[in-house]
Design a protein that fits this description.
This protein has 460 residues and is an alpha+beta fold. It has helices at 2-32, 34-39, 44-50, 79-84, 86-89, 100-103, 105-109, 135-145, 205-215, 218-222, 250-256, 259-269, 271-280, 306-312, 323-334, 370-386, 439-459; strands at residues 57-58, 64-69, 72-75, 129-131, 150-156, 162-168, 226-228, 231-234, 237-240, 246-248, 288-289, 292-293, 345-348, 357-358, 397-404, 413-420, 427-433. The strands form five sheets. A six-stranded mixed β-sheet has the order 3-2-1-4-13-14, with no helix packed on it. It has a five-stranded antiparallel β-sheet with strand order 6-5-17-16-15, with helices on both faces. A hairpin with a 2-residue loop joins strand 8 (231-234) and strand 9. Helix 9 (205-215) packs across helix 13. The radius of gyration is 26 Å and the shape is globular.
């Protein structure tokens, strides 16, 4: 009998110790990660209540994008700037998943584990956040997109600072419209610049060209000519071009955006080399921007037949890319083959007058050699000068357009990606216009407006 009592006591003691240990572990983790706990969707009431005292968000020049006054949250005085930066700044709810006001809600609100949101106004721990974006360039991008659904992504390929990150459709966070059931706002909560992926079309030929430069000799590529008749049979099925380009070399094929040339090039390189190069250039990996997870761009030809491998080399088949990925590819080419990864937050202030926390961009994986990056850069410049007739750009811009077929009778997506060679504004960019039909006619003019505005600002 006494043995049973001792066993029961031991069990009770062990259970009590386990409970106490669990509570200690939970409490320590709650204290350490209080700000993350406060940011969880199920605790949204904490963040929402705190936005009336939340810190200020500014752009790279100190332009106020969001601020609190008398318990209310306000936004920039210009409606186009408010709409342009909705997906970057966010609204007072949690509608925009990757926005600053969602991801950094607890830091902005000054949530304290000990005091919660109960600190007096003068003692609030809410932090101010300065972003890397330029609100005027963002406004220009938003205006250039007009009624088109799509996105613009621009960043400094030397520092990694994101200069413009704009997604459309958008809405005014100061005067939120009735969104539910309104076709005009379908998909409005998605940040198309970093959270959406599309078939990249001919912009992917930069990846195929890189694979060729990295795996073939200079003489092989210089002597590689092809006569495009408008179509070619690869793997028993046709690869088609928009027109017959005639005889062309490597540089001319990129400028003409010849599907037949690049499909055959992808087949000659093979699935392994194409996959290796795509991985080096940012596909099939997750990328985070200041704790904001972005969509993974995908290149998978593991089950592709010869014809499908050919189509993958021109940015079709199952290939998907985000505007951010394509901008980083252009930035890597511009930066001698190695990209500096984008970042959005310039600095976060600390309470009680402590020094700010500076941020910076990290060096990414080397995409291609410095010499091959220079060769591809020259090819992109040749394309702008000889096929796009300058593209409407002021300054020395290198670029590649793309028109990505989507099927289902819908118009193709329109793309352009590229960069400035001008040292005064070392910016890389990507523009996507959903169902825009033509990269040259639809996406290129948007990019020109944005980059010309950037040159105007940086030139000052």
């Amino acid at each position: 009998m006494m043995k049973k009592i001792r066993n029961r006591s031991l069990i009770v003691w062990l259970l009590a110790m386990a409970f106490i240990g669990g509570m200690i572990y939970f409490s320590i983790n709650l204290i350490i990660h209080a700000d993350l706990w406060a940011s969880k969707p199920q605790n949204a009431h904490i963040g929402v209540d705190g936005m009336g005292m939340a810190g200020t968000i500014t752009d790279i020049n100190g332009e106020i994008l969001a601020y609190s006054e008398n318990g209310n949250r306000y936004y920039n005085s210009n409606e186009d700037i408010r709409c342009a930066l909705l997906h970057t700044v966010g609204d007072e709810g949690r509608n925009i998943g990757g926005s600053i006001q969602n991801v950094y809600r607890s830091q902005l609100s000054g949530y304290s584990f000990i005091f919660g949101m109960g600190l007096p106004d003068g003692l609030t721990l809410g932090r101010n956040i300065q972003l890397t974006v330029n609100s005027e360039i963002c406004k220009t991008a938003y205006q250039a997109l007009g009624n088109n659904r799509g996105a613009v992504f621009v960043y400094n390929y030397k520092t990694g600072e994101i200069v413009a990150k704009v997604s459309n459709p958008s809405y005014d966070p100061q005067n939120i419209p009735d969104i539910e059931g309104n076709d005009e706002y379908e998909g409005v909560y998605v940040d198309r610049s970093i959270m959406a992926t599309y078939p990249p079309g001919s912009t992917f030929k930069l990846v195929t060209a890189s694979a060729a430069l990295e795996n073939m000799t200079k003489s092989e590529l210089e002597n590689r000519t092809y006569t495009c008749t408008g179509s070619d049979t690869i793997g028993g099925n046709k690869i088609t071009c928009y027109e017959a380009h005639g005889e062309e070399n490597f540089e001319q094929a990129l400028a003409h955006s010849c599907n037949c040339y690049f499909a055959q090039l992808a087949v000659d390189l093979g699935a392994d080399k194409m996959t290796t190069q795509a991985n080096r250039m940012g596909f099939n990996k997750s990328v985070s921007i200041n704790d904001i997870d972005t969509a993974k761009s995908v290149y998978d030809v593991s089950k592709a037949d010869k014809n499908q491998l050919g189509w993958s080399g021109v940015g079709q088949y199952t290939t998907l890319a985000s505007p951010m990925t394509m901008a980083v590819i252009s930035g890597g080419i511009a930066n001698g083959g190695t990209p500096i990864m984008p970042y959005l937050i310039k600095q976060i202030s600390l309470p009680f007058g402590l020094p700010n926390i500076p941020q910076s961009g990290n060096k990414g994986t080397q995409m291609l050699s410095e010499q091959n990056a220079k060769t591809l850069s020259d090819m992109m410049r040749y394309t702008v000068e000889n096929e796009y007739y300058g593209g409407g750009f002021n300054g020395e811009i290198c670029a590649k357009t793309g028109t990505a077929e989507v099927g289902g009778g819908e118009a193709a997506h329109a793309w352009v990606t590229g960069f400035s060679r001008d040292e005064s504004y070392p910016l890389a960019f990507a523009v996507i216009i959903e169902n825009g039909d033509s990269g040259y006619y639809t996406a290129l003019p948007v990019a020109a407006q944005v980059m010309n505005k950037a040159l105007e600002i940086y030139g000052q």
